UniProtKB/TrEMBL annotation:
Family of this protein: Belongs to the amidase family.
Official protein name in the record: Fatty-acid amide hydrolase 2
Residues that span the membrane, as ranges: 7-31
Domain Amidase: 67-509
Keywords, in A-Z order: Hydrolase, Membrane, Transmembrane, Transmembrane helix
Annotated InterPro entries: Amidase_CS (IPR020556), Amidase_dom (IPR023631), AS_sf (IPR036928), FAAH2 (IPR052739)
Single Gene Ontology MF annotation: hydrolase activity
Keyword Hydrolase: yes
Organism: Aplysia californica
Domain of life: Eukaryota
Length: 529
């Protein structure tokens, strides 16, 4: 029996491997010599972390208007290539920057330091981009769902209010995947967004527009949200930093679609940026005092006392692609770096990771008591897209929904009722895995883990590898904080990177590792270099 099962397992694995290798070669052939790169970021105004921008505006080394104007020029320059900006407030943002300059000019340095202190305005005058799924007064809030085209927001999401109160000035809104449930940002309202390093490649999703606009140097900081990898995948594919905080640290309200009360434990709103030094200040602002109090963000981390556990892959799930050798090599070098720094470095596999997708889906299915996916993509509270019918329309090219959304709608309508007992079993496994990992990590350990098995794939390729989000989804199911870190470029000039995972409320550990990795490996690399 065991032998027969093994034979079946290995045969299926081998066939999957061969088919996927052929599919990869086909995509490579189809996109050969296609695609462009965004030009190098050269204006020094565009090459400063948010905290430097704010500091220089505060002490009048820089004018807020000049900074905003430079980012608007850059956004207009790169958008025809990357297609990420789906809404803008250029005039209003410039006016707000001018007003800020006028106010700062009218004060003495002493008055400025008091009224606009680092503590109260850490993001003074910093241009901010906002994922379209977040409420922003006067702007669209469609999440790429055609039925929501007419909706305009009458208020800001709380996280946006927090950022504005800290001095940030929102100026653009960026593209997402349909209803934020896919890792390619493409939909029938805004179209498809492109990777700045090769426009033939995806930007990831759902916060994909953010990833691409930030890596192009067309924004300083951005707001993302993550229920299965929607901050980390775009940060990885676009070579920037991001942080999915511990559960309940940042207020998730004011975004569409919003997780139901019970599923809220899978969703995390957080910062995306090019410079690791911006992660903590942005996270503090987004979280507000109550959220910050749950963490130890100001605790110094001694890297020599850290335990670094490198987990090379998911121990071999049939559904998920093998990890690219270049990603494994980058992770090995990162681990080696920490060994040199005096940390205790080990390598470990967890066979439970094979079931990441099951555990995530089980948790989602059992938690999700909100509207069905077919209802969400209808754009109406009491609507329901008949996804079976819609699939027929899609096949003849007359649907206004994307294929992944239709497929998810069908699964969501039929499967959960059938899989209730499997879901319960999966969540049981998840709970015991969580208990074990919490004790493995303790308050001094981090995992290094691939962000995704593949380096930024070509457009539409994710349809062939729908389960590859397993690498990020696992940590939504577990509710662990994760910092996403870039690690230079691949042989094709596309970003490499990894996830740094800590136990719940030990965010300061993964954030300290992110800063060290930036210093050692160079962090974000401008496209077009
Ligand atoms: C984009 O990828 C294709 C396929 O690998 C490659 O042939 C092309 O040169 C790349 N374009 C750029 C700008 O790197
Ligand atoms: C303003 O702040 C920047 C960044 O901290 C610093 O380099 C510069 O010397 C300061 N300038 C003045 C006039 O204080
Ligand atoms: C987006 O639109 C929905 C209604 O369609 C609304 O409930 C929500 O408040 C808006 N933005 C958010 C999520 O705040
Ligand atoms: C969708 O439409 C088909 C064909 O009209 C029908 O058979 C099916 O019951 C519908 N499904 C749902 C979930 O409404
Ligand atoms: C959860 O629901 C999805 C579809 O909504 C289904 O594919 C999956 O099998 C269900 N359960 C598990 C444990 O994955
Ligand atoms: C590819 C594509 O359709 N991109 C769109 C993104 O959104 C902006 C604003 O709506 C459109 O102008 C672009 O055409």
């Amino acid at each position: 029996m065991g032998f027969r099962r093994n034979v079946i397992f290995w045969s299926v694995s081998a066939v999957t491997y061969v088919v996927m290798t052929l599919v990869d070669a086909l995509f490579r052939f189809l996109y050969k010599d296609k695609g462009k790169k965004v030009s190098r970021v050269s204006d020094p105004l565009l090459l400063m972390p948010a905290s430097d921008v704010a500091e220089k505006i505060r002490n009048r080394t820089l004018r807020a208007e000049d900074v905003m104007a430079a980012y608007i020029v850059r956004a207009k320059e790169v958008n025809p290539l990357i297609n990420v900006v789906v809404g803008e407030q250029y005039d209003r943002a410039l006016r707000r920057a001018q007003e800020l300059d006028a106010r700062l000019d009218s004060l003495s340095q002493e008055e400025r330091d008091r009224e606009f202190s680092v503590d109260s305005k850490p993001l003074l005058g910093v241009p901010l981009s906002v994922k379209e799924a977040f409420s922003w007064t006067g702007m669209a809030n469609t999440s790429g769902v055609p039925g929501r085209r007419h909706i305009r927001q009458s208020q800001n999401a709380p996280v946006l209010n927090n950022l504005e109160a800290a001095g940030a000035i929102p100026f653009i809104q960026t593209n997402v995947s349909e209803a934020c449930m896919w890792f390619e940002s493409s939909n029938y309202i805004y179209g498809c967004s492109n990777n700045a390093y090769n426009t033939s490649c995806i930007v990831g999703g759902s916060s994909g527009g953010e990833g691409s606009v930030l890596s192009s140097g067309a924004s300083v900081i951005g707001i993302g949200s993550d229920i299965g990898g929607s901050i980390r995948m775009p940060c990885f594919f676009n070579g920037i930093f991001g942080h999915k905080a511990s559960i309940g640290v940042v207020d998730n309200s004011g975004q569409f679609p919003i997780a139901s009360e019970k599923a809220m434990c899978l969703l995390a709103t957080g910062p995306m940026c090019r410079y690791a030094s911006d992660l903590i200040p942005c996270l503090k602002v987004m979280a507000g005092p109550a959220g910050v109090a749950k963490l130890k963000l100001d605790t110094a981390v001694d890297l020599a006392k850290l335990r670094v556990i490198s987990v090379p892959d998911d121990a071999g799930s049939i559904l998920v692609s093998k990890v690219d050798p270049q990603l494994k090599e980058a992770q090995r070098k990162a681990a080696e770096h920490f060994r040199k720094k005096g940390a205790t470095v080990t390598e470990q596999y967890f066979k439970e990771f094979r079931e990441s997708v099951n555990m995530w889906a089980g948790k989602m299915n059992l938690s999700d008591d909100g509207p069905s996916f077919a209802c969400i993509i209808s754009g109406k509270e009491d609507g329901h897209v008949n996804c079976t019918l819609e699939l027929g329309r899609w096949l003849v090219g007359s649907s206004s929904h994307t294929l992944p959304a239709i497929a998810l709608g069908i699964l969501n309508d039929y499967l959960p009722a059938m899989t209730k007992s499997a879901d319960l079993k999966a969540v049981e496994k998840l709970d015991s895995l969580r208990e074990r990992l919490v004790s493995v990590l303790g308050d001094d350990g981090v995992f290094l883990y691939p962000s995704h098995p593949k380096i930024a794939p070509y457009h539409h390729h994710p349809v062939c590898t729908p389960f590859n989000f397993a690498y990020t989804a696992l940590f939504n199911a577990l509710g662990f904080p994760v910092s996403q870190c870039p690690l230079g470029l691949s042989s094709d000039g596309l970003p490499l990177g990894l996830q740094v995972v800590a136990a719940p409320y030990q965010d300061h550990l993964s954030l300290a590792v992110a800063r060290e990795l930036e210093e050692a490996f160079g962090g974000w690399v401008s496209p077009g270099m």
